[in-house]
Specification:
2 copies of one chain form a homodimer. Chain A is α+β, with helices and mostly antiparallel strands. The first copy, chain A, contains 19 helices and 11 strands. Among the domains of chain A are: 126 residues, Orthogonal Bundle (Butyryl-Coa Dehydrogenase, subunit A, domain 1); 142 residues, Beta Barrel (Butyryl-CoA Dehydrogenase, subunit A, domain 2); 150 residues. The relative contact order of chain A is 0.09. The interface between A and B is large, with 87 and 87 residues.
């Protein structure tokens, strides 16, 4: 049975040293943050994840969710754990104090989210989506919703969902059929079928607040195959009056749950909206008229805010499952005895040495560590940028661009790497990894969805290449290249050279690839499409490489000064070297692939 | 629900054109082979796989095997399908005619095996292991076994297993505890526990013949933690007399079946041997004496023969699951509509274009095709070498070396790539790929075991680097390099240059890496261990690249002459180009990784 120890030390290192917490007190939500507070919160969250959530992970997978007569029952123990989770305040950490939250910055709430996911990805999806939903509702909802609904969600009394996908379309939301018709009282009647709705129905809370996109028909009742009439709605399972009073059951019901490869404790629902009462969020749209040209939709904006949060959260899922799989691969390697070290027995008194003596096993485990810790640093850096973007600092705009640029990288690169890490850790277990009782294969099955949902990784790559790179004249990649270059120039010296040089080379390659894309992608968009996945990976490898170089610097400084935990910093240097030696060489290859263009791929019949 | 169409055209192309069937009639088992016979057999096997085996794949996964009171029941339909399989003669195709088989060469029997695996990997493991078992028994058994037992197995009336792994050891068989004690009548009494025994117990046949390795204790009843006393035994579930009469139940029972990530229709059994009557196979060993030095064991040899066949078979599983997943990814891409082509709508009358218009989707599918067909060519080439090795040709010895060298590459590289292909095909399905009903995720779960069993892929890499490279002064890699070089020198010309050049570069890199390993691996074995996985992949990419260059040449010739199916050869050229443009660039990166050595990896604590 797998176990989990939250990486509190690494998170503390990242927040206090790597992000230099003490220098950030001018940022929103950072006023009260201190190393002690960070320590305290992380330690308590770790305890909860390890002791309450993790023990339900394997049983939740084995049992799955139950569906009967429209009612969904979560696996045994989930309901009590959810209650304890909310009571301990984990659900409300990041919410503004005005809504009953603790107002903590995202670098801290995401660290805690990571722990929850490592311990139990399925469970963590219920509060995870709820917090994305309450954030969206707080940003776009009417005052009475902020007064009566958001606080309930912040407290965890009610859960939230996000409803986008329909049976015939997920990526291509233009084809959505769900419609919302305005009523004289200003509400809407919403009808249609949404699928793959995580937590669409369950027994954790009395009410569920669905955040839904739907199209408003034109004057003739017609809907269009484009995004022009898409709007963002709130549809509670039980109606809520403007006075906060909970009323009758709304016209939304669960038509069934999916049987999936993994995340079986998370109820993935078909939701049927049948004249459900819906409240439009955001500004009132101009009704579209027959024959009118397509106009852009304001309604997608609210959902995009939610989606960006969710994408970041999925990237964290990539790290989180990688982390817990790695831990359990490592502990098996220190338990199982197989053969002898290639240089002669390490323990001659034993019939065989531990698995950990074998270079190939070490390679797989170090790969996991190097990914998990490097990715965590990048996620943290990106989330600090999100806070800076909301501050009054001069670099606020640049920070926003960087965070925006990193979102598809974090989502796609981290979930690809997280899936690989889960597979490598399972591979360390040999045939025993394939046996369900041992719990390793669950990590692989759970991690697999992360590459697909919230925009499949290929869609993320197209978002990066097709939207994020070129926006504002390429300001975002420019800001990134400048930031890395600035750091490289400021950090010469022999000791850091093994880290600075590969990152400099990688950055050069990334810039060349970016140039190639700029030149060819406009001439032939298929060249951009064919290159997108490799380009995203290239950017991920280079930026994580930069994170490792920065962490290596801190490690060297601490080791020189003799401060802190020596073993911790030494291990950081080893993992940093791994990334330089074994991941950075991919850059040149990816650049070659990118330059191959689209001719062959488009010739494929 | 997935479907399957056996790639008969590709297999015919490979056997008749690529392997030049007409020039091979001097080889053992090739005398009767003709294009017509090949066509006939492949067509009929395809029909059986598509119509009988494939429809049971998903239901078999859903239902799994049942265990009750020591009895194992296979999923619904398996028993009838197995009966039909044997009656149609598919089980006996490769067996010598003396045993009731058809005596067909392995290039043909493995093609048919591939179809069975694509259609139903779990089902195919029962006859697959049976044929490995009857081959081993025919090679090592006594005359009465060849007379009474092998024919029953060839006919499929009885199944066979291979029993190696024990609870505490799989890779490190030195630690085996199962013991066999000689009896006055020359038989042995065998006791111990074997785990992960595929088809160890089931309801397909009346009898099961277990091929078991166990240790013969020394005069004091002691067994040693080495391979010196390991012997190879036959242990039938129901005893068989030397007259062929079936007697009482033997002392072997099934203690349970494993609940696994995939291949759920294949019963993975715990087998308890409790004073089971066992027949030693092969020459009688010298009994080991207390205090004696370790001597090598003859008993492993028989099992190694079986293991090599099984490893080849697992490599074919990599291809097979890749193929069927690819087919179903492709068909979805021609069904599902998402967005518009980047260069403007392909079907302006439709609300959206087909998924296949998108470069990134095409990239994933072409990757699968390029792997599957390239790997199939390499497998076929290697199996032809196995036949040549058994012939009187001058190049027999060299062919044997090449086939031996390719075994770990086929096992590990093909199963890694097959797993990736299954994942890519599933990714094409977006979120729908994660839903069990759609059958795509089963391919991923089934394909995952192939990387692990019959020697985890890391063990294969160590076998390649630690054993196969250096044997006979490096004769095997030398033979490979010469063969590729010879072909490259004989095939210049502008038309082939896009294929010849990358293979020449790749070969150069492979030779450099081989040299590096020779120099560093002896000085520091950990350098070899740290490089092994990357080296195996490098060799796989280069050799498959060579196969693609050779197929490209045939395609170009046919297209120039206007012979054969134009679309087929054009598609071959596209897939060949894909390999050159997107896989061959990995070579330089892998070489860089190899040269990184083991220092960082061994520093990992």
């Amino acid at each position: 049975m797998p176990s989990y120890r939250a990486p509190v030390d690494d998170m503390k290192f990242l927040i206090t040293e790597f992000l230099e917490l003490e220098k950030q007190s001018d940022l929103p939500q950072f006023e009260e943050m201190s190393p002690d507070l960070v320590d305290d919160i992380l330690t308590n969250a770790a305890k909860f994840a390890e002791e309450v959530l993790q023990p339900l992970n394997q049983s939740g997978d084995e049992e799955g969710c139950h569906f009967e007569n429209g009612v969904v029952r979560t696996p045994k123990g989930f309901k009590d754990a959810y209650k304890a989770y909310c009571e301990a305040g984990w659900n409300s950490l990041g919410a503004p104090q005005a809504f009953g939250g603790s107002g903590l910055p995202i670098v801290l709430t995401m660290a805690i989210a990571e722990m929850g996911i490592s311990a139990n990805q399925s469970f963590s999806m219920y509060p995870g989506l709820t917090s994305a939903a309450y954030s969206a509702l707080a940003a776009t909802g009417a005052d009475w919703m902020k007064q009566h609904i958001v606080p309930k969600m912040v407290a965890g009394e009610w859960c939230g969902t996000m409803c986008l996908t329909e049976p015939h379309c997920g990526t291509d939301l233009r084809l959505m059929k769900t419609r919302a018709v305005e009523q004289p009282d200003g509400t809407y009647r919403l009808s249609g079928t949404k699928i793959f709705i995580s937590g669409g129905e369950h027994d954790l809370t009395d009410n569920i607040v669905h955040m839904v996109i739907a199209k408003i028909p034109d004057e003739n009742g017609k809907i269009y195959d484009d995004l022009s009439t898409v709007n963002f709605f709130m549809v509670p399972k039980f109606l809520v009056g403007e006075d906060g009073k909970v009323g009758a059951r709304n016209g939304v019901s669960c038509g069934g749950i999916e049987h999936k490869m993994g995340i079986k404790g998370s109820a993935t629902c078909v939701l049927n909206f049948d004249d459900a009462i819906a409240w439009r969020l955001g500004p009132k749209p101009e009704p579209r008229k027959e024959g009118q040209k397509t106009s852009s939709s304001a309604g997608m904006k609210g959902m995009f805010g939610m989606m960006n949060m969710a994408r970041l959260g999925v990237g964290i899922q990539g790290i989180a499952v990688g982390e817990v799989a790695y831990q359990n691969g490592l502990s098996y390697a220190y338990e199982r005895r197989v053969g002898h070290a290639l240089t002669g027995p390490k323990e001659p008194d034993q019939p065989a040495d531990l698995l950990i003596v074998h270079p190939d096993v070490r390679r797989m485990l170090l790969h996991c560590k190097s990914f998990v810790e490097g990715a965590r640093a990048l996620a943290m850096w990106s989330m600090l940028n999100m806070s800076i973007a909301r501050s009054n600092r001069a670099e606020a705009q640049e920070a926003g661009l960087l965070a925006d640029l990193m979102t598809p990288v974090i989502k796609a690169f981290f979930t690809d790497m997280g899936f690989d890490a889960a597979n490598m850790a399972m591979q360390v277990w040999g045939g025993h990894g394939y046996i369900r009782d041992n719990g390793m294969e669950q990590f692989v099955r759970d991690a697999r969805i992360n590459q697909t949902y919230e925009g499949a990784n290929g869609v993320q790559a197209m978002d990066l290449v097709g939207r994020k790179l070129g926006r504002k004249g390429g300001a975002a990649p420019m800001a990134l290249f400048n930031a890395i270059n600035g750091w490289l120039e400021a950090n010469g010296g022999d000791a850091l050279a093994p880290f600075v040089k590969p990152v400099r080379d990688g950055l050069g390659t990334l810039q060349q690839s970016t140039m190639w894309l700029a030149q060819h992608g406009l001439q032939n968009p298929n060249d951009a499409g064919a290159a997108a996945t490799d380009y995203l990976r290239l950017m991920g490898i280079v930026v994580v490489g930069w994170m490792w170089a920065r962490m290596a610097k801190l490690a060297q400084e601490n080791l020189t000064k003799g401060t802190g935990n020596k073993a911790f910093y030494e291990a950081k240097l080893v993992a940093a070297k791994y990334w330089m030696e074994r991941m950075m060489p991919e850059c040149a290859m990816l650049h070659q692939r990118i330059q191959a263009g689209s001719e062959t791929i488009m010739a494929f019949a």
